[in-house]
Design a protein that fits this description.
alpha/beta, Rossmann fold, Arc Repressor Mutant, subunit A, 2 domains, 5-stranded parallel β-sheet, 5-stranded antiparallel β-sheet, 9 helices
């Protein structure tokens, strides 16, 4: 990695915290640890972190609750850890905004690889921007505004709506192709940046997360429509400017 990213490990098992801290520091990362949500917030209030490794089963507020709270405030990358390996747990973690998910027990090298992948996806220019020559700064749709420089999304009331890096890239893909039916394969090609870990089944989860943020009624979406047998369509007029 080109710079020493700051990582926060949140896990109630001291042995796991100490092991991950030693291992990740040996590979050029700066690491701090927390045993629960209270310690996590103390660290977050004191300094900036590039990524959080968040255990699902924690005393007090669990990882799902903490992840949901974090997502309501910022787009810091989150990798969730859990002793549970059921698919439903993975889906719930992704739905509340986790960028990746790893079941215990795991090889620390696999976690390191996932950290690198998530950080690349978060800090690198995504594929959809590379494919769009002269990407405009501002995209406007249905009185919403997406700023591609700051990666900020504002609703019609000008309130800031936090987006993960993958949610931002997915929304930008739609805004670059309004009123066009995009298959899951199309979306995968547009969303996958260098080292991005996006797979076919996660497209639906990303769509669900985006709908909850921009649709008036996510269960009856009017912006991101499902085209049965075809994929998805962003059914809205989109305008943009360069300033």
């Amino acid at each position: 990695m080109e710079r020493a990213y700051q990582i926060l490990v949140v896990d109630d098992h001291k042995d796991i915290r100490d092991l991950l801290q030693r291992f990740l520091q040996q590979h050029g990362l700066r690491v701090m640890t927390a045993a629960d949500g209270n310690e996590m917030y103390k660290h977050l209030n004191a300094q900036r972190f590039d990524l959080i490794i968040l255990d699902l089963m924690l005393p007090g507020k669990d990882g799902i609750t903490l992840c949901r709270e974090l997502r309501a405030e910022n787009n810091i990358p989150i990798i969730m850890l859990t002793a549970l390996g059921e698919e439903v747990d993975r889906i719930v973690g992704l739905e509340v905004g986790a960028d990746d998910y790893l079941a215990k027990p795991f090889n620390p090298r696999e976690l390191l690889a996932r950290i690198k992948s998530v950080l690349r996806r978060h800090f690198a220019i995504p594929n959809v921007e590379e494919q769009t020559s002269g990407t405009p700064k501002n995209y406007l749709f249905n009185q919403w505004l997406l700023n591609t420089t700051t990666r900020e999304l504002r609703n019609p009331q000008q309130a800031l709506i936090p987006l993960t890096s993958t949610e931002f890239t997915m929304l930008l893909a739609f805004l670059c192709h309004p009123n066009v039916v995009l298959s899951r394969e199309d979306l995968l090609k547009l969303v996958q940046g260098r080292g991005a870990d996006v797979y076919d089944r996660s497209i639906d989860t990303l769509i669900s997360r985006l709908r909850k943020k921009i649709e008036t009624d996510p269960k009856q979406p009017k912006l991101i429509k499902t085209i049965w047998g075809g994929g998805y369509q962003f059914s809205c007029e989109v305008s943009h400017d360069a300033h």
